[in-house]
C-alpha cells in the first residue's frame, strides 16, 4: 500500500505538469491563430483524476494511522498503542508530510467543487484554460514536495514494534480543528488567486472579484476561525502561558496571511462600490496565497526556532523559489493590465478611511513578517543574531491596531465620496467614546493604549448597533446584518484584548495542602491532590477551591501529566469561566510531600475575545450568498 499511495501522487504530478505545459502551449497558439481550446476537456478530466488519486493516497494513510501500521515511517513517528482513536486520525496533520498531504487533498476537493459550480460553468474557455494552468502549477508544487522531501509513504523495514507517540501538546480538542481549518483557509485562497490571474490574462479585470466572493469569504473565515481563534484558544488552554498570544513565530505565521487577506476584503469592497483598485485587488489576493506559503516556510523550514515548528527536511529552498516565482508572475500580470483611474476622492470619506485601514493592515503584515524573520535578517551583520520579543510587537503593533479600532467607530457614518452621512448618530458615537475614556480613567485605567482601545471597543459596539437600527436598507439585507455584526464582534475582541492583556494579574506560589493565597478579591485554597496512572500516561491533579467573601466561586483542577516516550512533563490548564475576571491555573511542579508550585492568573474579560471571534466568524456566513452569473450561451467565445 505504500507504493500505491506514493505512485498515486507521482502519477498526479506527471499528469499536472503535462497538462499545464500543453495548456500554455495552446494558449500561445490561440493567441496567434485563434480558435477554441481542445485541451480544456482534458484539463477538467485531469483534475478529476487527480482528485481520485489523491483521495486514494489520503485514505491509505488514514487507514494506516487507524491500524497503527508502523511500517509507515509517518505512522511510527506520530502514533503509539496508547493514543486515543480520535488523536490517531488527527495525527494525519500532526507532522510535516501528513499536513502537506491534507492541504493538497483539501485543495483538490475544493477544485472539484469549483469545477461543478455554476460560476465556473459561466466562464469563457479562455479564462478556464488560464485558470487551470495556474491552478495546476500550484498543485504540482505541493506534489513535488510530497513526492520528494516530504513523502508520507516512506517504508520502515523491519517495522518497529511500538510507535514514538504524538506530542502531548497536540492531544487537545483544539488541535482536532485548528490545523484543518487553517489548511482550508490556505487552500481556499488558491481558487480566487488563480481566477484573478486568469481574468487579467483574459482582459477581464473586474468580473473575477464577483465570481469568487464566496470562496474568498470562506477561506478568510476558516483562516480566522482556525489559524487565529482556535490557535489562540489552544495556546491559552494547552501551553500554560497564561495568555492567548505571545507573538510566537508559529502564531505570527498564521497572522501574516490573515492581515493581507483582511486588507484585500476591504479593498474589494471599495473596488465593488467604486469600480476601482483592480490592480491592487489582484496583487492582494495573490499575496494572500503567497503569504500562506510564507507561513508554511516559517513553520516547516527550520529557519526560525519555535515551540511547535516542524522539522525542515528540505522544503525551505523550494518554498522560497516558488514564492518568488509566484510573486514575479503576479507583478508581471498586474503591470500588463490597463492603467486605471485613481481611487481616492477624499480621505474624509468611507472609501478614504478604508484605504487607510488597508495600508495599516499591510504595514502590520510587513512588521510581523520582518520581526519574525529578524534572527535570519540580523545574521547578515552579526554572528549572534537575536529574535524580537513580545515587547517589540506590543510597542509597534498595538498602537496601529488601536488606531484601526478608533477608525472603525467613525467609518460607517461617512459617505462613500466625502462628507458625513448622519451628524446626529456620529455625534452620539463620539459622545460614547469620550464618556468611555472618562469613565475608564476614573475607574483606574491609566495606560494610554489600553484606555484608547477599550474606549474604541465600547464605542465600536454602540456604533454598529446604531448603524444597523438607523438604516433601513441595511436591515433589509442579510449581508448588511453580516457586515456590521462582524464588526461588532471585532469591537468585542478589541475590548477583551484591552483588558485581558495589560490588566492580567499573575503570580507563582508554592502551597502546602490547606494553605490559601489571596488574589484580587478571591481566596484560593489548595485542598487536595490525587494521582492516576493509565496505560502510557500518569496524571497528577491538584484541587483548588476558590471563594469570594466566603462564598464559593468554583473549583480549579489543574494537572501535570507524564506521557510514555516523552521525558518532559506537560501541564493541563484549569479555569473558572467568567465574563468578568476569569481565574486560570497551572501546575509548575510538586515535591514528594505534595507541596505544589502553582501559576495563577486573573484574566479580565478574556472570554469576550472568544465570544467576539465566534460572532465574527458566524456573521461571515450571512454575507455569503448566491453569485449571479450570466447564462453560458452569452459567454461563449
Number of strands: 10
Strand content: 5-15%
Low-confidence segments: 632-637
- As an assembly, this protein is single chain
The secondary structure category is alpha+beta
| pLDDT averaged over residues | 90
The number of distinct helices, counting runs of at least 4 residues, comes to 22
Largest sheet: 6 strands, antiparallel
Helix content class = 55-70%
Describe the structure.
The protein is of the alpha+beta class and 637 residues long. 61% of the residues lie in helices and 11% in strands. It is globular and about 85 Å long. A hairpin with a 2-residue loop joins strand 2 (516-519) and strand 3. It starts with a helix and ends in a 14-residue tail after the last helix. Among the domains are: 2-237 and 252-297 and 308-327 and 347-362, no CATH class; 505-607, no CATH class. The model is unreliable at 632-637 (pLDDT under 50). The chain has helices spanning 2-33, 39-66, 73-78, 85-90, 96-116, 118-122, 125-146, 173-188, 190-201, 207-211, 213-238, 249-274, 278-300, 316-336, 350-372, 374-378, 390-410, 423-442, 448-470, 472-475, 478-500, 606-623; strands at 505-511, 516-519, 522-534, 537-548, 551-556, 559-563, 570-572, 574-576, 581-590, 596-604. Strands 2, 3, 4, 5, 6 and 7 form a 6-stranded antiparallel sheet that branches. The protein contains 22 helices and 10 strands.
Amino acid at each position: 500500500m505504500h507504493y500505491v499511495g506514493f505512485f498515486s501522487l507521482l502519477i498526479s504530478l506527471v499528469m499536472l505538469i503535462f497538462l499545464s505545459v500543453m495548456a500554455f502551449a495552446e494558449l500561445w497558439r490561440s493567441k496567434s491563430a485563434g480558435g477554441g481550446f481542445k485541451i480544456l476537456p482534458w484539463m477538467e478530466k485531469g483534475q478529476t483524476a487527480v482528485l481520485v488519486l489523491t483521495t486514494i493516497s489520503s485514505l491509505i494513510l488514514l487507514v494506516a494511522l487507524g491500524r497503527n501500521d508502523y511500517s509507515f515511517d509517518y505512522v511510527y513517528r506520530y502514533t503509539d498503542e496508547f493514543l486515543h482513536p480520535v488523536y490517531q486520525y488527527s495525527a494525519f496533520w500532526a507532522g510535516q508530510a501528513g499536513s502537506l498531504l491534507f492541504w493538497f487533498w483539501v485543495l483538490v476537493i475544493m477544485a472539484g467543487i469549483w469545477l461543478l459550480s455554476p460560476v465556473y460553468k459561466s466562464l469563457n474557455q479562455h479564462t478556464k484554460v488560464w485558470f487551470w494552468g495556474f491552478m495546476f502549477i500550484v498543485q504540482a508544487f505541493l506534489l513535488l514536495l510530497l513526492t520528494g522531501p516530504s513523502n508520507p509513504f516512506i517504508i520502515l523495514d523491519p517495522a518497529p514494534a511500538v510507535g514514538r507517540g504524538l506530542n502531548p501538546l497536540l492531544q487537545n480538542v483544539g488541535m482536532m480543528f485548528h490545523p484543518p481549518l487553517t489548511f482550508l483557509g490556505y487552500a481556499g485562497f488558491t481558487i480566487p488567486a488563480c481566477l484573478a490571474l486568469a481574468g487579467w490574462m483574459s482582459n477581464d479585470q473586474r468580473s473575477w472579484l464577483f465570481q469568487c466572493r464566496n470562496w474568498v469569504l470562506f477561506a478568510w473565515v476558516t483562516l480566522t476561525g482556525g489559524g487565529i481563534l482556535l490557535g489562540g484558544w489552544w495556546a491559552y488552554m494547552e501551553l500554560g502561558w497564561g495568555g492567548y498570544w505571545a507573538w510566537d513565530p508559529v502564531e505570527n505565521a498564521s497572522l501574516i496571511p490573515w492581515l493581507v487577506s483582511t486588507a484585500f476584503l476591504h479593498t474589494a469592497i471599495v473596488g465593488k462600490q467604486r469600480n476601482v483598485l483592480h490592480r491592487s485587488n489582484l496583487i492582494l489576493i495573490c499575496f494572500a496565497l503567497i503569504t500562506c506559503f510564507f507561513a508554511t516556510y516559517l513553520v516547516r523550514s527550520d529557519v526560525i526556532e519555535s515551540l511547535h515548528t516542524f522539522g525542515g527536511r528540505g522544503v525551505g529552498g523550494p518554498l522560497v523559489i516558488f514564492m518568488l516565482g509566484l510573486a514575479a508572475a503576479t507583478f508581471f500580470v498586474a503591470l500588463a493590465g490597463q492603467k486605471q483611474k485613481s481611487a481616492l476622492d477624499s480621505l474624509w470619506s468611507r472609501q478614504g478611511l478604508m484605504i487607510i485601514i488597508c495600508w495599516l493592515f499591510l504595514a502590520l503584515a510587513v512588521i510581523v513578517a520582518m520581526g519574525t524573520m529578524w534572527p535570519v535578517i540580523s545574521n547578515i551583520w552579526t554572528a549572534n543574531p537575536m529574535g524580537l520579543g513580545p515587547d517589540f510587537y506590543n510597542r509597534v503593533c498595538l498602537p496601529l491596531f488601536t488606531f484601526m479600532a478608533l477608525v472603525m467607530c467613525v467609518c460607517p457614518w461617512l459617505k462613500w465620496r466625502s462628507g458625513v452621512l448622519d451628524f446626529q448618530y456620529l455625534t452620539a458615537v463620539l459622545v460614547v467614546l469620550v464618556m468611555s475614556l472618562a469613565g475608564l480613567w476614573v475607574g483606574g485605567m491609566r495606560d494610554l493604549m489600553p484606555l484608547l482601545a477599550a474606549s474604541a471597543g465600547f464605542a465600536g459596539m454602540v456604533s454598529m448597533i446604531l448603524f444597523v437600527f438607523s438604516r433601513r436598507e441595511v436591515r433589509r439585507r442579510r449581508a448588511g446584518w453580516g457586515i456590521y455584526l462582524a464588526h461588532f464582534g471585532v469591537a468585542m475582541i478589541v475590548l477583551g484584548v484591552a483588558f485581558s492583556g495589560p490588566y492580567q494579574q499573575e503570580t507563582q506560589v508554592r502551597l502546602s495542602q490547606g494553605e490559601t493565597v489571596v488574589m484580587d478579591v478571591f481566596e484560593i485554597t489548595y485542598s487536595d491532590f490525587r494521582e492516576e496512572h493509565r496505560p502510557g500516561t500518569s496524571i497528577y491533579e491538584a484541587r483548588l477551591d476558590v471563594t469570594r467573601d466566603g462564598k464559593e466561586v468554583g473549583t480549579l483542577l489543574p494537572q501535570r501529566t507524564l506521557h510514555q516516550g516523552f521525558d518532559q512533563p506537560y501541564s493541563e490548564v484549569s479555569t473558572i469561566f467568567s465574563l468578568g475576571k476569569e481565574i486560570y491555573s497551572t501546575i509548575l511542579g510538586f515535591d514528594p510531600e505534595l507541596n505544589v508550585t502553582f501559576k495563577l492568573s486573573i484574566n479580565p474579560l478574556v472570554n469576550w475575545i472568544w465570544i467576539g471571534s465566534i460572532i465574527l466568524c458566524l456573521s461571515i456566513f450571512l454575507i455569503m450568498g448566491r453569485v449571479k452569473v450570466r447564462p453560458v450561451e452569452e459567454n461563449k467565445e
